[in-house]
Amino acid sequence: MTQFDLGLVQQLQGIPSGIENTNYFVDTERGQYVLTLFEKLSVEELPFYLGLMGHLAKSGLPCPLPARNHQGALFSDLKGKPASVVSRLAGKSIMQPSEVHCRAMGAMTAKLHLAAADYPPTQDNPRGPKWWVRVAPQVMPFLPADEQGMLKDELEVQFSHRLEPLPRGVVHADLFRDNILFDGDEIGGVIDFYFAGADAWLFDLAVVVNDWCINAEGRLDAQRLAVLMASYQSVRSLTDAERLAWPIVLRAASLRFWLSRLFDLYLPRAGELIHPHDPTRFRDILQYHRQTAQPWTS
Q1: Mean pLDDT on 25-35
Q2: What's the DSSP call for residue 161?
Q3: Nearest to 202 by CA among 171, 224, 180, 175
Q4: Which phi and psi (to 5°) does residue 200 adopt?
Q5: Complete domains list, the chain, with CATH
Q6: Which of 21, 22, 64, 246 is the most buried (most CB within 10 A)?
Q7: How far is Cα of residue 142 from the mean position of the Cα atoms in its chain?
């Protein structure tokens, strides 16, 4: 922390929920911050993510504002790993969202898309289709025959559709409940931008719906879905092409997280300390969408 002009450290507390990185709450004499040690991301990759967070924060969104070190850089070396310090935001994650939370989340997702539209640096979604093709053969041997068949079929279906013509820009790509902090009924923080990249805005919205509007049985909650989608469209209306593409994009968002959870479970890097999530939830959500998803009409 001496590399940043943030005052003397008064308290340091580990955050146990990190999967990709190691995080700490840091209280100094000047404020509250989050210190992140990056376990996977390289120094070449970090400027995109940290710059995006700063861009959104300066646009008025409740996103972490990275601190610059004494040399003006957004990250420093700490025990051989790149590390950043960002502002700590108010609130806590809501793991059982109500319609009130879904309404706030819908509007926030659209505001994020529009605010990031003029962020100049770009990179593809790092867990997009190119990554699916690379990872699927690696996880395939761990799956029973029926799941292998579903994975192969879904990849074929996804690559028969092109999402490039849909409205697109930089997306968060991981707007799960644990990455949103609520301060009362208002969103006080949007965090963990380290899977962000250029993709269809509709894909990002589908990621949100697959976490915020799915019940314990892996089915869409119609009321939460309607509220979230209406709130999103109060800020940015879906195009006709997006409405037609909705079923395939819901499946794409499910496939992405089924694959990533399989990868984390079966192929962690040597010596890596992670807390893999159960991949069967997104397997089941994908199966559900394969059977039921319809174009969006509201």
Answers
A1: 92
A2: S
A3: 171
A4: -65, 135
A5: 9-87 (3.30.200.20), 99-292 (3.90.1200.10)
A6: 64
A7: 26
